Amino acid sequence: MTETPRNPLGVHALVWAGGTDPESMRHAVDSSKQAGYDLLEISLHDTESLDVAGTRAAAERAGLGLVCSRGLGFDADVSSPDPEVSARGEALLADSVRIARDLGAEYFAGALYSALGKYDRPLDPRGRAHVVAALGRIAQLAAESGMTLGLEVVNRYESNVVNTAEQGLQLIDEVGASNLKLHLDTYHMNIEEDDLARPVRRAGDRLGYVHIGENHRGYLGSGHLDFTAFFHALSDVDYRGPITFESFSSAVVAPGLSHDLAIWRNLWDDGADLARHAREFMANQVHAAGLR
Ligand code: MN
Questions:
Q1: What dotted CATH number matches 9-289?
Q2: Catalytic residue IDs
Q3: pTM above 0.90, yes or no
Q4: 74 CA to middle of ligand 1, Å?
Q5: Which of 39, 191, 203, 227 fits as disulfide partner to 65, beta carbons 3.0 to 4.6 Å?
Q6: How far is the CA of 152 from the centre of ligand 1 (A)?
C-alpha cells in the first residue's frame, strides 16, 4: 500500500457507472485510478449486485482507497416518528456499515439521518429522538471497525433533519460519538449557508469529509461557486481528510438514486474527461491554498 496522502482526492462512482455490478465496479476502480484519484466513493444504494470481495480486491490491486455512502428511502427512514420505519432505516445503516467494513472502507458518509427526498412537513421531535439514538448505535458499530461516519449536510429539498453545518454540529454533539464527523458538500452549502467559508471554520476539527460539487453538479469551474474561498477555509482549519468530487448527469443513471437526487438534465457525456478535469481542478485548489 502506498502512503495515504494528506488530503486524498476522491471521485464518486456515479461519474463512471450507474450500477454496482462487478463490471461497473471494475470500470469505476480502473478509471478512477487512471484519472489520478486516491479514493473511489461507492454508493450503497444497490448492494444486492455488489461483489464486495471482488471490488475490494480490485481496489487493492489498483492502490485505490474506498469510501462508502448512502441515503435512505421514506419506507426505511431513521427520522420517522414511527418506531418500525425508523428501525428499518437503522437496520439498513447497520448493513451498510458491515459492507463498508468488508470493502475495507475507512469512511461511511451521507445523509445517514433521514430519507433522501422532499418532506412535506417539519421534523417530528419523536423522529429526531430516533435519529439521535440510532446514530449513537451506528457510530458504535462503525467504531468497532475503526470507521469514521460523515454526517452529510444536505439542502431542504433532500431532508428536513439537517440543512446547515450548524444543525449538523448540534446533532453530532447530541449523539456524542467521537467517530461521527461533519460532512460538507459545496453543492448543498450554496443553497443553505451564508457563504462557503464560515461553516468550514465553524466545524474546525469536527469536519471529517468533503464533497466538491458545482452549483448545478456539472464541470467544476463552469458554475458560480467560490471554490477559492472554500479551499482557503479548509486550509485555515488545517483540514486533512478526503476531498471527493461529486457530479451527476442523466448520461449515467443509477436506478432510484438518480431520481432521489433529481438528476433530470444532461450536464456531461464523457465521465473520463469530467473526472480528469475535476482531479486537476481540485489538485490546483489544494496546492494554491497551501493544503499539501
Ligand atoms: Mn454530496
A1: 3.20.20.150
A2: 152, 246
A3: yes
A4: 19
A5: 39
A6: 7
